[in-house]
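Q: I'm building a small set of examples for a reading group on sequence design. Run inverse folding on the following structure and report the sequence directly after it, with nothing in between.
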């Protein structure tokens, strides 16, 4: 009896599974219709994300995102801690208009990127020399919390591979490009 119960259960499962397979193979037009509907939904959702309201601005060398303003104040090419390499440096004053403290480099890193010859650039490290003490202090300001309503001077670095121009892109919180700047390194 126990053996026939096992066989009956297995046969019932096989019938159930074959029935499931038959129902999906009989309705290919409905599954392709579903795929077309899914494709339309995907396209419309990506189109709606492109038309989202921008959450950042860039005017008069000021990039504002999430109630934080980075006023670009200058650029430089300086020595890197990597032998025989240079760094491209963007100087800025950051003002926190949020109601809580922020870490400037966190927000900057999520919204600003650089490319050279179409390839992304990483951030670089300043050389530890007496001549770069001021820049190292500015860099330290960017990793320390800035209280609400306060401003600090800071900088961001990118490590170019050669002397070709660098393109810096500023994006909002949705990843939409707000502004692109091109800098020559000579």
């Amino acid at each position: 009896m126990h053996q026939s119960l096992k066989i009956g259960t297995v046969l019932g499962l096989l019938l159930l599974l074959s029935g499931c397979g038959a129902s999906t193979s009989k309705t290919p037009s409905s599954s392709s219709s579903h795929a077309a509907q899914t494709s339309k939904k995907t396209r419309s959702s990506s189109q709606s994300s492109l038309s989202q309201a921008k959450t950042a601005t860039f005017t008069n060398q000021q990039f504002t995102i999430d109630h934080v303003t980075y006023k670009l104040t200058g650029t430089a090419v300086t020595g890197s801690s990597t032998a025989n390499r240079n760094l491209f440096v963007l100087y800025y004053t950051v003002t926190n208009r949020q109601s809580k403290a922020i870490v400037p480099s966190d927000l900057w890193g999520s919204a600003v990127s650089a490319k050279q010859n179409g390839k992304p650039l990483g951030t670089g490290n300043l050389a530890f020399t007496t001549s770069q003490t001021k820049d190292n202090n500015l860099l330290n300001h960017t990793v320390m919390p800035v209280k609400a309503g306060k401003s600090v001077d800071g900088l961001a670095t990118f490590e170019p591979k050669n002397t070709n121009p660098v393109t810096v892109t500023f994006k909002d919180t949705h990843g939409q490009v707000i502004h692109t700047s091109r800098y020559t390194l000579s």
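The domain at 56-183 is CATH 2.60.40.1240 (Immunoglobulin-like).
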